Amino acid sequence: MKKVVKFGGSSLASAEQFKKVGNIIRAEESRRYVVPSAPGKRFSADTKVTDMLYQCYETAVSEKDFKAQLDAIQARYQEIIDGLGLPLSLDAEFDVICENFKKKTGEDYAASRGEYLNGIIMATYLGYDFIDATDVIFFDEEGNFDAEKTNDILSKRLENTERAVIPGFYGSMPDGTIKTFSRGGSDLTGSIVAKAAQVDVYENWTDVSGFLIADPRIIQNPKPIEAITYKELRELSYMGATVLHEDAIFPIREEGIPIHIKNTNAPEDAGTLIVEATCRHPKYTITGIAGKQGFASITIEKAMMNSEIGFCRKVLQVFEDNGISIEHMPSGIDTMTVLIHQTEFEEKEQKVLAGIHQAVNPDSIELESDLALIAIVGRGMRSKRGTSGRIFSALAHAHVNVKMIDQGSSELNIVVGVRNHDFENAIQALYDIFVNTRI
Ligand code: ASP
Predict the structure, then answer these.
(1) Whole-angstrom Cα distance, residue 411 to residue 407?
(2) pLDDT tens digit string along 318-329?
(3) Deepest in the core among 12, 355, 405, 410, taking most CB within 10 A?
């Protein structure tokens, strides 16, 4: 058994947290490759080291004195080193960083130092090899991740390395400069290493015990999701459920390597297993519920529209020309509705309406704003009769008016549109019917 273990910022925010991480890694021989984030928040009002680095670099670029800010960053690391009692000094590293900030080496370089230094501490603490991500993670000329080159070089390097720490979040450009992934990108590094090392499991350690069936800000103590497929996760992430970087599943998806989300602060909790497919029956008919507010709908009505060839294309062209992406498009015989993000639409509203008039000469156009979309997601829905019946009776009992319904063709999700002010009530009703009453 071989595992990659990635630890998020809050798991590495202090010496105390490092000790928990050390215990987790040492508890299993299989935890051979470690991907750390930069130190995160120690308490809710704290600042992540990555943000401190961005701010410090901004000061350097504006040619102001950044010494105090850099010292504060070094102090964060020193606190960890002292707390762990390590014979390690980062003075020389900070001299180099200071020089490079003066030379304005780049924002990505600055941010990457967060994981780089944490990686050095982690490798010293564990007695593992340190592999700088610049030597094994590559981007192409356009700044896109170069999966092939990375996998070639990284897999060879890991073949000869029994145990190593590889810092997350960054890699190098063809000219040797440093580039980072988007925020939260250490999740991606973990996935890339998991593929290159062909591990059995990619463990992603964070500060929650996996994904929850619903948002804990809306539902009190929601139940955790034990197993979820990549596809279900995509649906839920799109609707706002965040634990893992959205792109983290791509490198390992075709490799069939599962991701196990675990809680550093409660390692005995089962966590969530993310898999390609599973014959494990979900405990409930649904796997999760997620939603987003702030949508608007445009309903276009025209008699005989369904026999007018190219009608939809002409309407959609108007949205494309205005750079507005479409979320859903339910239709009737003489009507079609387009759902879009309200903020995206607001600025271009009149242009879009005029465009639709010119394109298809409708009988009427109706606008509705302040809508929310809720996705009810679950691989279990396919084989169960009456899921939509239960959804709508639950919403009716909760006095929620359903404005729109869309069942994905994969039968993996049902999306309902409700008014923003019914959003929380609707999620509570859905959670109650599927989880609390367990049908
Ligand atoms: N440290 C980076 C961030 O705060 C990357 C990561 O933690 O994954 O976004």
Answers:
(1) 7
(2) 999 999 999 889
(3) 12
Angle at 294 between CA 289 and CA 295, to 5 degrees: 90
Contact 387, 285 (CB under 8 A): yes
What is the whole-number distance in angstroms between the Cα of residue 169 and the centre of ligand 1?
6
Whole-number Å distance, alpha carbon 200 to ligand 1 midpoint, is 25
Q: Is the dihedral of CA 56, 171, 237, 223 positive or negative?
A: negative
pLDDT tens, 111-167?
999 999 999 999 999 999 999 999 999 999 999 999 999 999 999 999 989 999 999
CA-CA-CA-CA torsion sign (238, 405, 402, 363): positive
- Give strand pairing partners of 171: 179
Backbone torsions φ then ψ of 377, nearest 5 degrees: -115, 140
Does the CB atom of residue 6 touch ligand 1 within 6 A?
A: no
pTM for this entry: 0.86
**Residue 222 per-residue DSSP state:** P
